[in-house]
Amino acid sequence: MTKVRRKNGIGKDREFKVVHLNAAGVDVSPKEMQVCVPSDRDEKCNRTFGVYTKDLHEISAWLKKCGIDTVVMESTGVYWLPLFRVLKGDGFDVILVNPREAKNYAGKKTDEADAHWLMTLHTYGLLKACFQPDNVTREIRNLVRHRDNLIQSCSREVLHLQKEMEQMNLKLDNAFSDILGKSGQAIIKAILDGERDPERLAGLADWRCKKSKEEIKASLQATWDEDHLFIMKQSDDLYHYYKDLIKDTEAKIEELVNRYSASVDADKAAAMERSKKQKQLHNDVSFDIEQYAYNAWGVNVMRMPGMSKNSALRLLAELGPDFVEKFPDARHFESWANLVPNNKISGGKLLSSKVPNKNNPVGQVFRQCANALWRSNEPLGDYFRHIKARSGHLQAMVATGKKMAGIFYTMVKNKKEYDVSIYAKSKEKTLERRIKKLQAKILRLQNEQAQSGLKVTDGTD
């Protein structure tokens, strides 16, 4: 414990030094903004403003009059965003902080006290800024999150469709592995158009279907209740409506993402070595995200095992092209993505080492990518199965996701493509260590056998 104290400087006298002399604090709420500046800047240093656009510009003008150059506010819902944009546009250094890290002192809680407390903490440099992407990335992020919501709405309508078919004893999901495929969609369309003959409906199935014609025909004998057919038709209409909205959203996303290509040399972009992933999923993005991601980061992240098109799109939307400049190293990036444990130590003992319960979209992407590796023959797949056998599936997702986040950061930071040979050498060294360990165990057992004088037979006597 002595070494830890020395390393962290615990026990030494510490002095709070003023880091930001011209700092202000803002307590954000839906109906008013409470702004606090140092007491020597204005007679009324803690003022209340409205939330309309003219009020936001009044805040900016008052802060300029008070000689403020840096402002701190909590990330309260989405209410902070309009003021954040106005202050940023007027040249202020705006710091957005996590409310958990800026909890008020004990006592009566008021908006004035919260704004003053934020200003005080920021004055002494005790607050850590949240990650904020550039404006283009923010627009892409909003659209990508909207696209995810539309996909969830699509999935919900498919479940409604299946529920209505099940209540009519229409066993279409027993005959086809995917009712959204070519055969399933053709049969559903014919049913909604009024066809009820199982023989004709079964004839619409593709010849490549594994089920026999008789089994498909048997699954299409239903009660055809009018109420369920009506709901089924509306669910199918909503499903296709959402699919059209997804196409429109992807077209807008591609328009924004294409801005990253303007700063990339055409010859360099054409020289990109594509990944060998060819499998197309229902909800895959329709445009060439592999090329756009390469234009933004300078490396092809799709060559990483487990990385899908949707994962690359979400990472590009959440991080932007210059995220490596905002994290000093891979460890800080992994910690921000909520992929490392939060070690709590008291009395020289480790009390807890759980991963914090925080919702980080980037961390979720890397966990999903890691989960796709549990059957992979890649070294990362071996690592996932090794951790799973020792600690369980969830721990393996976090540990492998952390490793993937470190690889991703290093690739983008150093502009170096994914090289599987590095991890193959590491796997070889791991196997050598295991062999030496097993040989030492065999030698120890042989010595114990020799000392005891027992003779071990092989069962052939």
Automatic annotation (TrEMBL):
MF terms from GO for this chain are: DNA binding; transposase activity
Its BP terms in the Gene Ontology are:
DNA transposition
- Which part of the chain is the Transposase IS110-like N-terminal domain? 24-168
Q: One Pfam family this chain carries?
A: DEDD_Tnp_IS110
For the Transposase IS116/IS110/IS902 C-terminal domain, which residue ranges apply? 301-383
On the tree of life, the source organism's domain of life is Bacteria
The record, for PANTHER family, names: TRANSPOSASE, TRANSPOSASE FOR INSERTION SEQUENCE ELEMENT IS1111A
* Protein's UniProt name: IS110 family transposase
Native source species: Hallella mizrahii
